[in-house]
Amino acid sequence: MNSSLDSKNNQLNLHKPRNITAVLVVCLVLLVICVFVSLVFGSRPVRLNELIDGLFHPGVDSFGANVVRKRISRTIFGLFCGAALGVSGALMQAVTRNPIADPSILGVNTGASLFVVCGIAFLNISTANQYIWLALAGAAITAVFVFGIGSMGRGGATPLKLILAGAATSAALSSLITAIMISRTYVMDQFRFWQVGSVGSATWNSIATFAPFLTIGILIAIISAPALNALALGDEMASGLGVRTGVLRLVAAFAAVLLCGAATALAGPIGFIGLLSAHTIRLMLGPDLRFVIPLSAISGAIILTVSDVIGRLIGNPGELEVGVVTAFIGAPLLIILAMRMKVRSL
To answer: How far is residue 132 from each of residues 69, 175, 212, 260, 264, measured CA to CA in Å?
Structure first.
């Protein structure tokens, strides 16, 4: 089967891109720069000596060093969330064969949010471990529901039908969230900061909780990438190459929901990262998911970290939540992509 997949990849020009090394180096350099910027800039910029003290001199108890230590956990958590959402978006686009699929567009984030709200309101949950399992359940149920609705009728799960199904589902679930919160002030107070999407409340405990989900999800995604390339040829062709399309979709969707649900549970519903990162990498390297998936993780981490820093600088002396910043960046891109797809269909 592997030789068949490799030969078909060659026919589709899915060989190793010539510029892969250059793109990887650029992405890694940008990632290092983003980490540096995230540690230095915020409501209170730190000097170089304070950065060194915060990173390498734990005995120093100055204000600047403590600010840096606080930003370390925030930066790592932002990198993890960005990587998870970037890979989740790439997987959703591959599974649905929809170039503008994204957890926020398909309503998966909203489903996770609904379950978290229900947990806060009816089960009195308050910890990251409790959030994460409820968010995963909500994300999974919503993903299955949206794909089922979008698959009904002639033509199956077309991009337009999936977007409409996701938008309608998201609107309905948002109404339920509002209905639950409106009569429960304590739920609204606890939920409203989480709802906009933020990495500002990151702790080492939340990073440790998130790390296993991130590792498992990305490993499944990377292992599934060659078969997902075959799936792009169509179900019949992929089956002829020995790919069990039903199992593949289930496994890849599980990884996407695992990554998206875990990130949403701990950081809130941050949108458009998957859309932005996957499209950026495809523009540079082409459609081969063996390269798109790992580099979407790096680009997703870069985009979310940059957005977080922008939010801190714009909102100074407070901060603008990262979910708001990514929405401002991602919404125009979604409109442009949707217009291009409409033009092609005409």
So the answer is: 25, 22, 12, 10, 8
CA 70 – CA 330 distance, rounded (Å) = 28
What are the tokens at 295?
């580099």
- DSSP letter for each residue of 62-125: -HHHHHHHHHHHHHHHHHHHHHHHHHHHHHHHHHHT-TT--TTTTTHHHHHHHHHHHHHHHS--
Which band of pLDDT confidence, cut at 50, 70 and 90, is reported for residue 343?
very low
* Domain at 2-345: CATH architecture: Orthogonal Bundle (1.10)
What secondary structure letter does DSSP report for 201? Answer: T
Q: Residue 195 has what pLDDT?
A: 65
Q: Any idea where the domains of the chain sit in the sequence?
A: 2-345
Task: Give the max Cα distance, the chain.
Answer: 67
Q: Which residue has the tokens 């959703």?
A: 92
pTM: 0.86
